[in-house]
Amino acid sequence: MTDMKKDTAAQDSATATAVAEAEPLLKVTGLVKHFPIRKGLLSRQTAAVKAVDGIDFDVRRGETLGVVGESGCGKSTMGRLITRLLEPTGGRIEFEGKDITHLGVAGMRPLRRDVQMIFQDPYGSLNPRHTVGAIVSAPFKLQGVTPEGGVKKEVQRLLSLVGLNPEHYNRYPHEFSGGQRQRIGIARALALKPKLVVAD
Asked: Are 186 and 118 in contact (CB under 8 A)?
């Protein structure tokens, strides 16, 4: 009887896992972002730039989705909308079945551990006054997380993971090449082991 219960529990667990994997991690429906064009003394809106104009897609756990398009077609804007760094004009964004379309800063704070972004301009997204160690460890501080083995050890592990010398922990962004600064951004994005990473 005990073995039967164990088998049933194992089957239930496997079924739950299969269902979770089948459901979209991210579901985007009719996503829209229009930037108003204003003119005149009263700054009245005269037109709008349609940066993102009604897109739909799903991303499941373990999947990689590539979005291809010419410069200025709205790829970066889409990434910022998904990570809620920009407010959508319309549409719906769901993460793990939860509607995050209009979540504010406080509402998104718990989700920042699971949703991270790698920015296109590595130098512009790295504080030049902070060391690499401070930059990569910032997510731990913001989320109140202490990695096993300590922050410094984990930051050095992340630097090694992205192909940087872990001994460069105390260097500053300007001491690295553009490609190396991009890797610093990747290390920072991976720090909290997010479920979704948006690479601009």
From this structure: yes
Residues 6+ apart with CB under 8 A from 24: 58, 59, 60, 94
Q: Write phi, then psi, for 39 (nearest 5 degrees).
A: -140, 165
Q: Which domains does the chain have, with CATH numbers?
A: 24-103 (3.40.50.300), 112-199 (3.40.50.300)
Q: What is the pLDDT of residues 67-104, one digit of tens each?
A: 988 888 889 999 999 999 999 999 999 999 999 999 98
| Under 8 Å between Cβ of 108 and 116 | no
* Structure confidence by residue, pLDDT tens digits, 40-65: 777 777 788 899 999 999 999 999 99
Residue bearing tokens 């001994």: 167
CA distance 99 to 91: 11
Give the SS3 label for residue 129. coil
Record the pTM.
Answer: 0.78
User: Of all helices (H) and strands (E), which one includes residue 183?
Assistant: helix 178-190
Two tokens at 21?
């994997």
Distance between CA 115 and CA 108 in Å, rounded?
A: 9
Helices within 55-177 (DSSP H only): 75-82, 105-108, 132-143, 151-161
